[in-house]
């Protein structure tokens, strides 16, 4: 590689791969049927080429010649070929996909990228053809990853508590804001053909999110200051109010800290611009803690405590409810890693993952602990297990509660918890099988909050009566 350029040669035989390396190629793109434009090579060819050359070998993933419009069955074939290429020593992967109007199919590319990890990917944009194919792609750009569904979270590239509350109004202000966005990796790598109109849409999405966050902050801080000044807060309540207000401020700062991870230039990374899944999980986790603490305080103040008889069964039910709530919280938190890694697009089948109960690439990363937080397959597997464990725990909790005489309101809380848990499982499976459509995925995410709310309600119903 000289002056930042890498010569990549597309080959379809062992002999041409060897000749390409001798001619100075810095990387091989291996395919079959080069005359037809290239298709996925056999794994036997990959193994032999790997033995004969020392430069990296990237494998083309293309189930057939012709256009780049793929059916669902062809997509499953591509995913299977990616997994095989990873298992047989590919150094990287090459693919492309278009929509019917000739634009990059970002949804499909995102799904394929999730399967490719941790290998680097080269994306080639083929022209839409009625017949034949474009062949090897000229001017392929080596990216950290392949384009994904347009994310709005990185559209606002700076953070000001007051200044950013006023959106751009004139054409000049919008163009200035767009130019700022164009300086960051998401535009350069992912959205370089984005128009100003498209940018306005994702900008307003992020703007609405930030403004809503400010409204939440004011909803906590202003009433707290008023009640404090009036002397309506007890000493313990003052501590709770300070903790909640502090958590609100921390949540805002953590949100910007998360966004910054997606704005950083990463010259040595092969991934697409995205926020860190660790920071995303921290941001979601702190939001869940804030929500849970606020709901718990509200339930404690508004709902009178039951005078429940202290029995061994009731103590066990209370402990069971606490453990189930913790499991539901952990399951919701694991969803942040699923979202951050696009892990919901790796295996879109249920109950099996592809053809296996336990996928072959479950522990593909080294060291093994990395798989839990960075391997999309493992992350999806863990989320499945946690979700199944949650519905089993809720069902067992419901059945156990039937043996204990409980007040009507407590019985309603148990029944509601089971109903929402069943709904949430149905939403999760549907989201997976339908390749994570945005409306359904958003509903599933909302369902996790509803399920956590039901669990906290039940805990509140079972809390001890102070002596």
From TrEMBL:
<comment type="pathway">
    <text>Porphyrin-containing compound metabolism; heme A biosynthesis; heme A from heme O: step 1/1.</text>
</comment>
<keyword id="KW-0560">Oxidoreductase</keyword>
<keyword id="KW-0408">Iron</keyword>
<feature type="transmembrane region" description="Helical">
    <location>
        <begin position="383"/>
        <end position="400"/>
    </location>
</feature>
<dbReference type="Pfam" id="PF02628">
    <property type="entry name" value="COX15-CtaA"/>
</dbReference>
<feature type="transmembrane region" description="Helical">
    <location>
        <begin position="442"/>
        <end position="459"/>
    </location>
</feature>
<feature type="transmembrane region" description="Helical">
    <location>
        <begin position="279"/>
        <end position="303"/>
    </location>
</feature>
<feature type="transmembrane region" description="Helical">
    <location>
        <begin position="412"/>
        <end position="436"/>
    </location>
</feature>
<feature type="transmembrane region" description="Helical">
    <location>
        <begin position="324"/>
        <end position="347"/>
    </location>
</feature>
<feature type="transmembrane region" description="Helical">
    <location>
        <begin position="240"/>
        <end position="259"/>
    </location>
</feature>
<protein>
    <submittedName>
        <fullName>Cytochrome c oxidase assembly COX15-like protein</fullName>
    </submittedName>
</protein>
<keyword id="KW-0472">Membrane</keyword>
<dbReference type="GO" id="GO:0046872">
    <property type="term" value="F:metal ion binding"/>
</dbReference>
<dbReference type="GO" id="GO:0006784">
    <property type="term" value="P:heme A biosynthetic process"/>
</dbReference>
<keyword id="KW-0812">Transmembrane</keyword>
<dbReference type="InterPro" id="IPR036822">
    <property type="entry name" value="CutC-like_dom_sf"/>
</dbReference>
<dbReference type="GO" id="GO:0016653">
    <property type="term" value="F:oxidoreductase activity, acting on NAD(P)H, heme protein as acceptor"/>
</dbReference>
<dbReference type="InterPro" id="IPR023754">
    <property type="entry name" value="HemeA_Synthase_type2"/>
</dbReference>
<keyword id="KW-0350">Heme biosynthesis</keyword>
<keyword id="KW-1133">Transmembrane helix</keyword>
<dbReference type="GO" id="GO:0120547">
    <property type="term" value="F:heme A synthase activity"/>
</dbReference>
<feature type="transmembrane region" description="Helical">
    <location>
        <begin position="211"/>
        <end position="228"/>
    </location>
</feature>
<dbReference type="InterPro" id="IPR003780">
    <property type="entry name" value="COX15/CtaA_fam"/>
</dbReference>
<dbReference type="GO" id="GO:0005743">
    <property type="term" value="C:mitochondrial inner membrane"/>
</dbReference>
<keyword id="KW-0479">Metal-binding</keyword>
């Amino acid at each position: 590689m000289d002056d930042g350029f890498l010569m990549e040669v597309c080959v379809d035989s062992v002999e041409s791969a060897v000749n390409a390396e001798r001619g100075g190629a810095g990387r091989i793109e291996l395919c079959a049927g080069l005359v037809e434009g290239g298709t996925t090579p056999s794994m036997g060819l990959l193994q032999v080429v790997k033995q004969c050359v020392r430069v990296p070998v990237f494998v083309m993933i293309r189930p057939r010649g012709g256009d780049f419009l793929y059916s669902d069955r062809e997509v499953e074939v591509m995913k299977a070929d990616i997994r095989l290429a990873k298992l047989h020593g590919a150094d990287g992967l090459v693919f492309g996909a278009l929509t019917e109007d000739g634009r990059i199919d970002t949804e499909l590319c995102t799904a394929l990228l999730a399967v490719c990890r941790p290998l680097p990917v080269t994306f080639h944009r083929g022209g839409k053809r009625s017949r034949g194919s474009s062949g090897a792609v000229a001017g392929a750009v080596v990216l950290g990853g392949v384009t994904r569904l347009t994310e709005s979270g990185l559209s606002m590239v700076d953070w000001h508590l007051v200044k950013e509350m006023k959106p751009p109004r004139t054409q000049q202000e919008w163009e200035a804001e767009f130019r700022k966005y164009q300086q960051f990796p998401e535009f350069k790598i992912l959205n370089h053909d984005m128009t100003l109109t498209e940018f306005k849409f994702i900008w307003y999405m992020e703007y609405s999110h930030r403004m809503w966050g400010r409204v939440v902050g004011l909803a906590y801080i202003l009433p707290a200051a008023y009640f404090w000044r009036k002397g309506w807060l007890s000493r313990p309540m003052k501590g709770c109010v300070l903790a909640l207000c502090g958590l609100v401020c921390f949540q805002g700062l953590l949100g910007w800290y998360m966004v910054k991870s997606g704005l950083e230039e990463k010259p040595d990374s092969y991934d697409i611009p995205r926020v860190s899944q660790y920071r995303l999980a921290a941001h979601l986790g702190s939001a869940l803690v804030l929500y849970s603490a606020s709901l718990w305080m509200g339930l404690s103040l508004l709902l009178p405590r039951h005078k429940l008889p202290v029995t061994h069964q009731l103590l066990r039910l209370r402990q069971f409810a606490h453990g189930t709530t913790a499991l539901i919280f952990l399951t919701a938190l694991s969803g942040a890693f699923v979202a951050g890694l696009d892990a919901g697009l790796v295996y879109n089948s249920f109950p099996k993952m592809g053809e296996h109960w336990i996928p072959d690439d479950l522990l593909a990363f080294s060291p093994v602990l990395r798989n839990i937080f960075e391997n999309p397959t493992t992350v999806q597997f863990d989320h499945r297990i946690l979700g199944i464990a949650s519905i089993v725990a809720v069902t067992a909790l419901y059945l156990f509660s039937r043996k204990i005489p409980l007040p009507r309101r407590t019985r309603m809380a148990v029944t509601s918890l089971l109903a929402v848990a069943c709904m949430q499982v149905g939403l999760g499976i549907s989201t997976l099988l339908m390749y994570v459509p945005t409306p359904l995925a958003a509903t599933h995410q909302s369902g996790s909050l509803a399920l956590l709310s039901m669990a906290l309600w039940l805990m509140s119903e079972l809390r001890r009566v102070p002596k």
